Amino acid sequence: xxxxxxxxxxxxxxxxxxxxxxxxxxxxxxxxxxxxxxxxxxxxxxxxxxxxxxxxxxxxxxxxxxxxxxxxxxxxxxxxxxxxxxxxxxxxxxxxxxxxxxxxxxxxxxxxxxxxxxxxxxxxxxxxxxxxxxxxxxxxxxxxxxxxxxxxxxxxxxxxxxxxxxxxxxxxxxxxxxxxxxxxxxxxxxxxxxxxxxxxxxxxxxxxxxxxxxxxxxxxxxxxxxxxxxxxxxxxxxxxxxxxxxxxxxxxxxxxxxxxxxxxxxxxxxxxxxxxxxxxxxxxxxxxxxxxxxxxxxxxxxxxxxxxxxxxxxxxxxxxxxxxxxxxxxxxxxxxxxxxxxxxxxxxxxxxxxxxxxxxxxxxxxxxxxxxxxxxxxxxxxxxxxxxxxxx
Length: 392
Description:
The structure is a single chain. The chain is of the alpha/beta class. It has three domains: 3-106; 135-185, Alpha-Beta Plaits, CATH 3.30.70; 188-390, Vaccinia Virus protein VP39 (Rossmann fold). 38% of the residues lie in helices and 16% in strands. It is built from 16 helices and 13 strands. Strands 5, 6, 7, 8, 9, 10, 11, 12 and 13 form a nine-stranded mixed beta sheet that branches. Strand 5 (204-207), helix 9 (214-222) and strand 6 (228-233) form a beta-alpha-beta unit. Helix 3 crosses helix 4 (68-78).
């Protein structure tokens, strides 16, 4: 592919990504993979270059661009080396017209940027949400130790006891250590907010929003498979991935429970008031993961944010019903918005008399309301909010 053809390919991909964002369709990485699966002639250098153009444009454009060409024109305004590639060549983009306007740049759509600012993130704190993320792994303590594991590349030891960091794009999924369950991909912040629950051997622990089970596996490793783990989720496909992942990791999960939305209490009835600890890794906007999914800013709207905050209240209340007297509930979101963090905890404490927020005992983050917030700029992690609540 010529340099101009790479720009045209990026424009075509951006058109697809913009449309998918508006329709809540496939994510950008899947669209990019599908695009090149149909164009086998593109070599690895071409794919890498196009992907770089696409994500650079996405990170630059705050509001959703009206077209992929407008997004690429915004990138060209910043990187003048791209301008002459709008050359009208057979496989390149048409020349730039005198009246053409580039897409608007910024952190996010104006309404969402205002919410970010209102939540206390400004300047470098806000822009860091869009930086490229490294790749973090957790060495699985059930099978290996960070100090002695033999990996194809040396990783940077992190503060988390079993955490290692590698450059973005490191293909750890191709390593024998990954296939054999010795390592799991998990952001450094995710490792710490999971540890904040402080799971202990012999306890009954419910992971209420387990998804594919990343934090469930971390809890199994932290307790040496000596806790009774119950993993729940409403997503059948994601929850179905837990069993093979647990088998690979050597993790023991006593029960996996598929929840029916709106009827969750029926499925978890056997554990009402029985759990020593409950983890609520609640569905959220994902504003803390923009480093990995920058087009997420284009998918979120006010209605979706309101729906998510109501859902977070709902799962918090279900989680509270499972906790025994004196037990612990951990609330986590991968969001930096107060609406999905400090505000939710304040509302919970107003609804549940006798519950108290406790200090979050992790070495990262800064206090935010009754919890702790981690951010890329301050902590070098994805954005997270975590709060620890104890029942009466």
